[in-house]
């Protein structure tokens, strides 16, 4: 964490994200085009993950390591990307866009700071981790900058409900796959040892409470400026109407 290789990866990711955002703004890239680009990034991520995490089955052949299933928060975003890309425009797509914009930004930012797949330039899993999360951070910011994502008070409440629902579902998934040592959304244990805030020093219950508070706090801090801005804009419009 924060080694020379890590800083190089972060610099590459920042350059990619800024470059892609400028490209999207300059060329007025549509949501459909951006979604297709992100779908390609997701495909690279999942294919490279399968190439590096297949394990031999005792019955013959190989299978994907259960710990590599896409049930982490950032990994779950790929289902959102696929739905945005190929799903119909309905009342479900908008909450998906709003949730992905917020959690994709926060989750990928944290993932780039805590590279659980390592930073070795000679290992494919490092490329999978940084390429995917850099792509996710770009796409999430694009959704916000382009105005496709709405981040008002109503969307804030929806995002809280969706996040808590995913936590509950992932609890069951971790329990069902506990024999494989899964730790999706880091509900079982911290993502890395010796972290200053997310650790098991005071037991799992305190760790889980801290994890929830961290998620709730980050989501609130992220959406609060948008909520305030929308509220002020509504007040100005009402005063002008009067």
What best-fitting shape do the alpha-carbon axes yield? Answer: globular
Find the structural class using helix and strand composition: mainly alpha
Count helical runs. 7
Mean pLDDT: 92
Spans where pLDDT lies below 50 across 5 or more residues: none
**β-sheet strand percentage:** under 5%
Task: Give me the count of strands.
Answer: 2
Question: Can you offer a commentary on this structure?
Answer:
This protein has a two-stranded antiparallel sheet. The longest helix has 38 residues, at 204-241. With 242 residues, the chain is mostly helical. It has one domain. The protein starts with a helix and ends with a helix. A hairpin with a 5-residue loop joins strand 1 and strand 2. Helix 3 runs antiparallel to helix 4 (93-113). The chain contains 7 helices and 2 strands; from the N terminus they run H-H-E-E-H-H-H-H-H. The model has no long low-confidence stretch (mean pLDDT 92). It has helices spanning 4-27, 31-53, 73-86, 93-113, 124-145, 153-176, 204-241, and strands at 54-56, 62-64.
Summarize the structure.
The protein is mainly α and 242 residues long. The protein is 69% helix and 2% strand. The protein starts with a helix and ends with a helix.
What attributes characterize this protein structure?
2 strands, mainly alpha, 7 helices, two-stranded antiparallel sheet, 242 residues
């Amino acid at each position: 964490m924060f080694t020379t290789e890590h800083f190089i990866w972060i610099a590459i990711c920042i350059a990619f994200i800024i470059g892609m955002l400028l490209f999207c703004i300059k060329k007025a890239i549509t949501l459909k085009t951006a979604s297709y680009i992100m779908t390609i990034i997701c495909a690279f991520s999942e294919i490279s993950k399968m190439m590096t995490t297949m394990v031999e089955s005792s019955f013959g052949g190989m299978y994907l390591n259960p710990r590599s299933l896409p049930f982490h928060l950032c990994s779950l975003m790929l289902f959102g990307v696929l739905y945005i890309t190929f799903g119909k425009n309905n009342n479900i797509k908008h909450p998906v866009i709003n949730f992905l914009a917020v959690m994709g930004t926060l989750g990928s930012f944290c993932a780039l700071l805590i590279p659980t797949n390592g930073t070795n330039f000679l290992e494919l899993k490092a490329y999978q981790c940084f390429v995917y999360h850099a792509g996710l951070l770009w796409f999430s910011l694009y959704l916000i900058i382009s105005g496709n994502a709405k981040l008002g008070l109503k969307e804030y409440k929806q995002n809280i409900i969706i996040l808590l629902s995913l936590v509950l579902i992932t609890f069951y998934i971790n329990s069902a796959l506990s024999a494989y040592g899964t730790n999706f959304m880091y509900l079982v244990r911290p993502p890395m040892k010796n972290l200053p805030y997310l650790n098991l020093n005071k037991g799992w219950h305190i760790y889980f409470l801290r994890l929830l508070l961290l998620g709730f706090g980050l989501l609130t801090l992220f959406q609060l400026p948008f909520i305030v801005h929308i509220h002020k804009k509504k007040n100005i419009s009402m005063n002008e109407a009067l």
